[in-house]
Specification:
By secondary structure, the protein is of the alpha/beta class. The protein has ten helices and 20 strands. It has helices spanning about 10, 30-40, 80-90, 125-135, 180-190, 195, 200-205, 260-265, 270-285, 335-350; strands at about 20-25, 45-50, 60-65, 65-70, 95, 100-105, 110-115, 120, 140, 145-155, 155-165, 170, 175, 205-215, 225-230, 235-240, 250-260, 295-305, 315, 320-325. The strands form five sheets. It has a seven-stranded mixed β-sheet with strand order 7-6-15-16-17-14-18. Strands 9-2-1-13-20-19 form a six-stranded mixed β-sheet, with helices on one face. Helix 2 packs parallel to helix 10. Mean pLDDT is about 90; it is low at about 1-15.
Length: about 350
């Protein structure tokens, strides 16, 4: 399904940087990884991010006098290349180990400690990493690309990008899309690239929703641990965000994530009903009786991939279109890096990008 045609650069081993100008749609870990690697190889690229700043799934939400991580709660560094990349481009001060107590509830409803692991978080918030990675890059925030149109110019064939306001965002020879699969498919269809969007396998691209509820406990929740994975059809995760390194909150801010299947069933449920249900489930399953204060919420329509494996990335050489993201590498923050890294390695092995 994911085979592509032979490019001119395959025929000419001496050709370098045949990608030309590169547009990267999405400034999460995948997009930022590719942008950083292209920068090292002196390849011209521009990032387009629909939100106010970089982050993707490593997003944080403003709360009184602080912020809370509402997307990825932590990440692992199983691939040494990922650790080296973070240290080189984000800096060791942008993240640290979360040395909390983590518990899960088995099928028998007995609570147990999670197995030891090195769990990292951005400091003082998850977005510290993506903001550090974006420094020095050509990033256009608050711009959502609506369509691509095929064009020819003096620099060769490529794509003219148009945003949702109808403004042209320039001509690029190569386009990398790192948006969630539903949004990627929408963009490709709007650009007359239905054949490419048809290659986004339902098995791979199926994404599940997630409701996030952030709750403040002024006197602390007295939960007995820093993070929980309960045996619940409503609540998937609960964590004391204030226990992460670099946080200096008054009281405790807890982040609750709903179960993926429950989330899919309740994407259109009124937020106040979602909040009440999730908070009640947190209190019951985790034994929390402390009084709470302010509550904020967020609905993720595309939170996590159902599939745990994938092709890593997609590269349609004839069209100059690439697709990367954590959903093509089984999810997780590290999966986003692995997806992007494998794409750059492929470009180098196919000699469309200088070594």
């Amino acid at each position: 399904m994911f085979n592509v045609s032979v490019t001119e650069s395959d025929k000419n081993p001496d050709q370098r940087n045949a990608l030309g100008r590169v547009a990267i749609i999405g400034a999460g870990i995948a997009g930022l990884t590719v942008a950083r690697k292209l920068q090292l190889l002196e390849t011209d690229c521009t990032l387009f991010e629909k939100s106010r700043g970089p982050g993707g799934r490593m997003s944080s939400k403003r709360i009184p006098d602080s912020s809370a991580d509402i997307g990825a709660q932590y990440f692992t560094v199983r691939n040494p290349a990922f650790g080296r990349f973070l240290n080189q481009h984000a800096g060791e001060d942008s993240y640290g180990l979360w040395r909390g107590q983590f518990r899960f509830q088995g099928a028998d409803n007995v609570w147990q400690d999670m197995r030891p692991a090195e769990r990292y978080v951005g400091t003082p918030r998850m977005t510290a990493i993506t903001r550090a990675l974006s420094e020095g890059l050509d990033l256009k925030a608050g711009v959502r690309i609506a369509s691509l149109s095929r064009e020819e110019s003096e620099s060769g064939n490529g794509w003219l990008l148009t945003d949702t306001e109808g403004n042209s965002q320039g001509f690029f020879n190569t386009v990398l899309v790192t948006a969630p699969p539903a949004q990627t498919r929408e963009l490709l269809d709007a650009s007359g690239l239905e054949r490419l969007s048809g290659d986004l396998s339902i098995e791979i691209s199926r994404m599940q929703a997630c409701w996030t509820v952030v709750v403040h406990f002024p006197e602390g929740a007295a939960a007995g641990a820093d993070a929980f994975m309960p045996n619940s059809r409503i609540l998937h995760w609960a964590a004391n965000n204030s226990s992460k390194p670099g946080r200096n909150d008054k009281g405790e801010w807890w982040v609750l994530h709903s179960d993926p299947d429950w989330s899919d069933e309740h994407t259109e449920t009124a937020p106040e009903d979602v909040i009440a249900t999730m908070l009640a489930e947190f209190r019951e399953t985790c034994g929390v009786t402390a009084g709470h204060g302010e509550i904020v919420h967020h609905r993720w329509l595309y939170a996590r991939p159902r599939a745990r494996t994938g092709p890593g990335h997609l590269w349609f050489a004839e069209q100059g279109i690439a697709i990367a993201g954590d959903w093509l590498e089984g999810g997780r923050v590290e999966g986003a890096f692995n997806s992007a890294d494998s794409l750059v390695q492929r470009w180098q092995s196919e000699r469309v990008l200088g070594r």
